[in-house]
Amino acid sequence: MDARSLAPSLHTVKAILILDNDGERLFSKYYEDIHAIGKEERVFEKNIFNKTYRSDGEIALLDGFTIVYKSSVDLYFYVVGSSQENELMLMAVLNCLFDSLSQMLRKNVEKRTMLDNMAGVFLAVDEIVDGGVILESDPLEVTQRVGLKIEETTLTEQTMSQVLQNAKEQIKWSLLK
Predict the structure, then answer these.
(1) How far apart are CA 167 and CA 173, in angstroms?
(2) What pTM value is reported for the model?
(3) What is the pLDDT of residues 34-86, one digit of tens each?
(4) Residue 149 to residue 170: CA distance in whole angstroms
């Protein structure tokens, strides 16, 4: 083992994955080139799923990586770090992600609801981890920041729909006169 791999680093998270109960990818974000993009990532994800889907544990070691995981209804959440990484740090990221999504999805953390709110999932992950560096571990902060960003987007859309609705009403009233 070389000294570089043991040197402390802020880059603690290698990947965040969310798989369904068949082991199929719903969300993945890799922060380092763990494997070549494509088929090797799918094989890696399938190996993780096969190792963890029947166990009641929270931590697994696979291919030189430490993996912390949690399941909910029909989803499996994974945070991947190096083999020397502190499991508690990885678990803090996992808990923050799960609790944030739970709050955002109103305690309905399941595949269909998550797919309907995928933009929020992307925003939450980006608020928690950036480039493998943990930015936030408080789910309240994450949901607040994500909520503000989503509200800004929906406010613009809502304003446009209100404008269109007002225009329709004005046209309707002008035709009725």
Answers:
(1) 10
(2) 0.77
(3) 766 678 888 899 999 999 888 877 888 888 899 999 988 889 999 999 888 88
(4) 32
